[in-house]
């Protein structure tokens, strides 16, 4: 509803010039791409917020995915009001309004943390996402209108590369300031000592009885080093109760380090074997993550009952310490989001002071025929494009949302959440590299064929991570970012192709379809709670399958609209 047909003739000095220029307003293009950077930065921080808030509020996967449900749900609920805002204010003032609303949402994280309320965090996220929705409605079409229609896909992809720069830097920023839990550093000399190397080999390969005896007899520091270097599945082959009995005698400091390295059945058995006094002796920074691991595990009825007993055995003092720890963890988001809010205000002032071309003939006011959304939806390439945006955003956000938890699984990356956050950088960095390369490729290669090829490769990578473990599963899931790169801008450009006076309606529908980022991750969270994270990736696999169809068949324009005359 925010804009009508791209007025190619009106934005170029002559038809010949319009056909040869990449963009008619280089400085406006440069300024607008900074907006893409900022909303990419803000959006990707959700991937850090999810594991953080999951721990702070002891959520299961489905509950944690309410972060994305709330954030991307705002696109569906607020895209039409955002379109009206842009129609009333114009592109420049619309961008300033979007930045200001997003800043208000970022400031809302401070009271949400003070209240220690998950609902308050979700409310702040909704306001922030509303601001980004206004930016999406204004900036995507604005970039498409800054030059010839022939290069609109390439231009949007280039702008989205700046968006990907934000999504690449964001996880590193969030990992340092939000997922900032310290981990014990094991001396290199201890890890490489012959006795430690031998103990690692024993944990990995020796008979069960021999392994249990070795665990009982190992000095605490050597045992901790060996547990961190052993294979992810080394302890799974051992009787959990016997293993727990071998750990019980450890001093409190060593016990904390051992608990940090455990997961699944060995962790549950070890916590169950500890007395209330021993549990109280564990630092809250160790006990809280251990409880979170078990909360997210797929426990059978007996294990769930055993875990309930562990929780019931916690003394009031221990529960109070855990509550204090979680409150401090919640407050870790305050300063980063306060800084982001201030940055958004500064950026809004900068855009307000910069002279952007208004392109007023491209707003809704230029559409004198008063077309409806249904008029646009009757065109098959728009309808299929709406579904393609829905499934693409759903797949991309689902993968990014689960990456930290997925890479920290013992059988996948066997790493801390902070280390996993550093690997998320490569997922989004791949999208940035792909968009820079894609903006050039799209000038020479049919965008439909390139879209289908990239979606097919992404689907194969999802299938690979579902069927493998360790480094292969890690690399394949991260590499998907490279092939996600061109999908959104290409689908968006194909979805509004040759729509004439219906371009604004088609654009609003495509922005509304970003709600896929709300629904698909939530559905994958439900699947993950029932069948594990790895198998739940079947959902993104199906999404990429649909995008292959859209590139090959669904995006074909069967009934183009006559363009608006701008004589």
Description:
α2 runs antiparallel to α6. The chain is elongated and about 80 Å long. The protein is mainly α and 567 residues long. The N terminus is likely disordered. The relative contact order is 0.15. The protein has 29 helices and no strands.
Brief overview, please?
This protein has 567 residues and is an all-alpha fold. Helix 13 packs parallel to helix 16 (284-296), helix 21 crosses helix 27 (516-531) and helix 21 (380-407) packs antiparallel against helix 29 (538-554). The longest helix is centred in the first third of the chain and has 42 residues, at 66-107.
Helix fraction, binned, reads over 70%
* Class from secondary-structure proportions: mainly alpha
Helix-strand string:
HHHHHHHHHHHHHHHHHHHHHHHHHHHHH
Proportion of residues in β-strands: under 5%
Our count of helices gives 29
Q: In terms of per-residue confidence, which ranges show pLDDT below 50 for 5 or more consecutive residues? A: 1-19
Shape annotation: elongated
Structure summary, number of beta strands: 0
Round the mean pLDDT to the nearest integer and report it: 83
Main sheet? none
Query: How many whole angstroms does the radius of gyration measure?
Result: 26 Å
Q: What distance lies between the first and last C-alpha atoms, to the nearest angstrom?
A: 23 Å
């Amino acid at each position: 509803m925010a804009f009508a047909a791209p007025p190619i003739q009106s934005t170029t000095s002559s038809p010949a010039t319009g056909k040869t220029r990449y963009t008619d307003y280089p400085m406006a293009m440069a300024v607008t791409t900074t907006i893409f950077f900022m909303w990419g930065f803000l959006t990707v921080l959700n991937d850090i917020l999810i594991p953080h808030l999951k721990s702070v509020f002891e959520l299961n996967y489905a509950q944690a995915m309410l972060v994305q449900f709330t954030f991307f749900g705002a696109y569906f609920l607020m895209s039409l009001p955002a379109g009206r805002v842009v129609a009333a204010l114009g592109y420049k003032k619309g961008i300033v309004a979007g930045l200001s609303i997003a800043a208000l949402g970022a400031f809302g994280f401070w009271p949400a943390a003070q209240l220690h309320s998950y609902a308050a965090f979700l409310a702040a996220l909704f306001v922030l996402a509303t601001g980004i929705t206004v930016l999406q409605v204004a900036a995507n079409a604005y970039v498409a209108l800054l030059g010839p229609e022939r290069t609109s896909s390439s231009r949007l992809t280039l702008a989205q590369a700046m968006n990907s720069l934000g999504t690449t830097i964001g996880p590193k920023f969030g990992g340092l300031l939000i997922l900032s839990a310290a981990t014990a550093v094991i001396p290199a000399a201890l890890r490489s000592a012959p006795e430690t190397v031998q103990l690692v080999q024993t944990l990995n390969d020796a008979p069960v009885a021999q392994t249990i005896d070795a665990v009982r007899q190992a000095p605490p520091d050597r045992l901790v080093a060996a547990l961190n270097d052993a294979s992810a599945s080394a302890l799974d082959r051992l009787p959990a109760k016997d293993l727990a009995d071998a750990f019980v005698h450890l001093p409190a400091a060593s016990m904390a380090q051992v608990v940090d390295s455990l997961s699944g059945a060995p962790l549950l058995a070890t916590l169950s074997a500890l007395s209330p006094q021993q549990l109280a002796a564990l630092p809250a920074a160790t006990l809280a993550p251990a409880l979170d691991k078990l909360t997210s595990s797929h426990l059978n009825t007996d294990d769930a009952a055993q875990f309930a007993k562990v929780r019931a055995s916690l003394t009031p003092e221990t529960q109070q310490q855990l509550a204090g720890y979680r409150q401090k963890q919640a407050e870790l988001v305050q300063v980063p989001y306060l800084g982001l809010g201030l940055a958004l205000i500064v950026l809004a002032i900068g855009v307000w002071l910069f002279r952007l071309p208004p392109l007023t003939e491209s707003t809704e006011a230029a559409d004198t025929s008063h077309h409806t959304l249904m008029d646009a939806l009757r065109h098959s390439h728009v309808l299929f494009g709406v579904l393609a945006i829905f499934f693409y955003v759903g797949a991309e956000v689902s993968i990014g949302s689960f990456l930290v938890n997925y890479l920290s699984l013992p059988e996948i990356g066997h790493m801390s959440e902070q280390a996993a956050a550093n690997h998320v950088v490569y997922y989004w960095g791949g999208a940035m590299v792909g968009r820079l390369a894609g903006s050039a490729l799209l000038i020479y290669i049919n965008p439909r064929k390139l879209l289908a090829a990239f979606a097919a490769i992404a689907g194969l990578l999802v299938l690979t991570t579902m069927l493998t473990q360790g480094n292969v599963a890690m690399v394949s899931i991260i590499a998907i970012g490279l092939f996600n790169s061109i999908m959104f801008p290409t689908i968006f450009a194909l979805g509004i192709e040759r729509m004439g006076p219906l371009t604004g309606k088609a654009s609003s529908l495509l922005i509304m379809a970003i709600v896929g980022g709300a629904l698909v991750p939530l559905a994958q969270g439900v699947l993950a709670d029932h069948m594990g994270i790895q198998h739940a990736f079947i959902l993104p696999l199906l999404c990429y399958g649909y995008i292959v169809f859209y590139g090959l068949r669904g995006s074909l324009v069967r009934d183009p609209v006559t363009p608006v005359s701008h004589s």
